[in-house]
């Protein structure tokens, strides 16, 4: 595991965007695994800025997203498809047909999970998977459980996740209770993983996930087993981690 501790959210976004850029420059037709949530927004803004300056080219890149709410259509502002279009895809030279997410409106959930697994496989797997961290240790929508989830599956979200996500919905709007998510196996099969974590409220779960036992009740703890993972965290989120872990500390 490679750890980078940087001062704040802005620096975390810059460092992570640098790593993603390096991937695109080294392999222009790479498959990027992308994430939603508030943490990656700064990364996407930085990538857009570098694209506009002419430093990045996305025309051969393919993307797969980790998850999508069930029962929400792609034109709903709360859908992860909408989020990705607004925060990244609409601002760079990537064709929509090169971007893949589970279809929240699919009639047959099982068939949709199979389709999404097949998409990942047909693309040749994910070269670099970007991940955020949920407050209860979830990655994508793999919630704490008795066992690690495998391929793409449909999950019931925990109350804490629904609560955390409700801040992104308008008052009175129903927060979806179910979602499609890549499984732990799909995530672990990515050739490289980039985990980004920001904020004091994530310090305890980051510490547990990175240094504690590998258990399905803390899904992110499995990342300790990945052969090529880089963790970029701001100082607040890194507060409980030992300084020896860090390859580079920007003070
Ligand atoms: C959601 C997403 C996750 C994300 C998590 C943390 O549940 N499905 O992929 O990592 O939220 O979000 P945030 O970055 O807003 O804290």
What does this molecule look like?
The protein is an alpha/beta fold and 251 residues long. The protein has one domain (2-249): Rossmann fold, CATH 3.40.50.1360. The chain has helices spanning 9-26, 41-52, 80-87, 109-122, 159-166, 184-188, 203-211, and strands at residues 2-6, 31-34, 62-65, 67-69, 99-100, 128-131, 153-156, 178-181, 192-197, 229-234, 246-249. The chain has an 8-stranded parallel beta sheet with strand order 5-3-2-6-9-10-1-11, sandwiched between helices. The chain has a 3-stranded antiparallel beta sheet with strand order 4-8-7, with helices on one face. Helix 1 packs across helix 2 (41-52). The protein is globular and about 50 Å long. The site of 2-amino-2-deoxy-6-O-phosphono-alpha-D-glucopyranose (GLP) has 14 residues, from helix 5. 2-amino-2-deoxy-6-O-phosphono-alpha-D-glucopyranose is lined by residues 35-39, 66-67, 132-134, 140-141, 161, 165.
